[in-house]
Amino acid sequence: MRQRVRKGILVFSMLMFPLTFFFLSPFVIVLSAAKGILNGSAMVFGLLLLFSIFSSRIFCGWLCPGGALQDYVSAANNRKWNSKGKNLSKYIIWTVWLSFIVFLWMRNRPLKGNFLYLVNIDQQYIIIYAIVMSVIYLFTLLTGKRGMCHSLCWMAPFMVTGEKFADLLHIPRFRLKSVPDACVSCGKCSSVCPMGLNIAEMVKSGIDSSECINCLECADSCPKKAIRFGIGQKQR
């Protein structure tokens, strides 16, 4: 039941993406920064970072419209796309992208806040939206399970930063918790993971991966309840 609700929310989020794109766009924030404006996407990205300190990457697993699109595209290519090198690329891209935005903010001070700046469905918007959707679709089709999340996502690093900040300061946050003794190594958890993570192996040593999107697919599929979840600190 929980997964039906989650997937229903994701579908709704994807249907609303033509409107919410203004506040999640990697391009609109750059256009706004060039004018010295803190727009809606800048504020939303900041909120996602703060939200992740307590909620980890729940947004990715339950609300992300790009993630929803990838989950459906994965039906055509369910190959696992997950490795240190592939995952590292998004942080490199994010660092360059965010550094450029900060540069534009510093160059165009004093900054002005305008949440609805550039919120207008015009030709420019349609072109940018089409480019982003095409990149998400084609990259996932060519790579596999949530390939965009692993390698190109511009939002995931904000939330991973929030998680690391919480762990550094020992702030309890939402996380998966394993019960190794209950695991029978059936492998169901790994087979249903939309991120292609080796959950079965992680259960043995405590589930702790910055690539986990807290969708709870593994917990809901485990016949022995070896995977649980809640608010807490890192397992030792």
Automatic annotation (TrEMBL):
<keyword id="KW-0472">Membrane</keyword>
<keyword id="KW-0813">Transport</keyword>
<keyword id="KW-1133">Transmembrane helix</keyword>
<feature type="domain" description="4Fe-4S ferredoxin-type">
    <location>
        <begin position="174"/>
        <end position="202"/>
    </location>
</feature>
<feature type="domain" description="4Fe-4S ferredoxin-type">
    <location>
        <begin position="203"/>
        <end position="232"/>
    </location>
</feature>
<keyword id="KW-0411">Iron-sulfur</keyword>
<protein>
    <submittedName>
        <fullName>4Fe-4S binding protein</fullName>
    </submittedName>
</protein>
<dbReference type="Pfam" id="PF12801">
    <property type="entry name" value="Fer4_5"/>
</dbReference>
<keyword id="KW-0479">Metal-binding</keyword>
<feature type="transmembrane region" description="Helical">
    <location>
        <begin position="88"/>
        <end position="106"/>
    </location>
</feature>
<feature type="transmembrane region" description="Helical">
    <location>
        <begin position="126"/>
        <end position="144"/>
    </location>
</feature>
<dbReference type="InterPro" id="IPR017900">
    <property type="entry name" value="4Fe4S_Fe_S_CS"/>
</dbReference>
<feature type="transmembrane region" description="Helical">
    <location>
        <begin position="37"/>
        <end position="54"/>
    </location>
</feature>
<keyword id="KW-0812">Transmembrane</keyword>
<keyword id="KW-0249">Electron transport</keyword>
<dbReference type="Pfam" id="PF13237">
    <property type="entry name" value="Fer4_10"/>
</dbReference>
<dbReference type="InterPro" id="IPR017896">
    <property type="entry name" value="4Fe4S_Fe-S-bd"/>
</dbReference>
<keyword id="KW-0408">Iron</keyword>
<keyword id="KW-0004">4Fe-4S</keyword>
<feature type="transmembrane region" description="Helical">
    <location>
        <begin position="9"/>
        <end position="31"/>
    </location>
</feature>
<dbReference type="InterPro" id="IPR051684">
    <property type="entry name" value="Electron_Trans/Redox"/>
</dbReference>
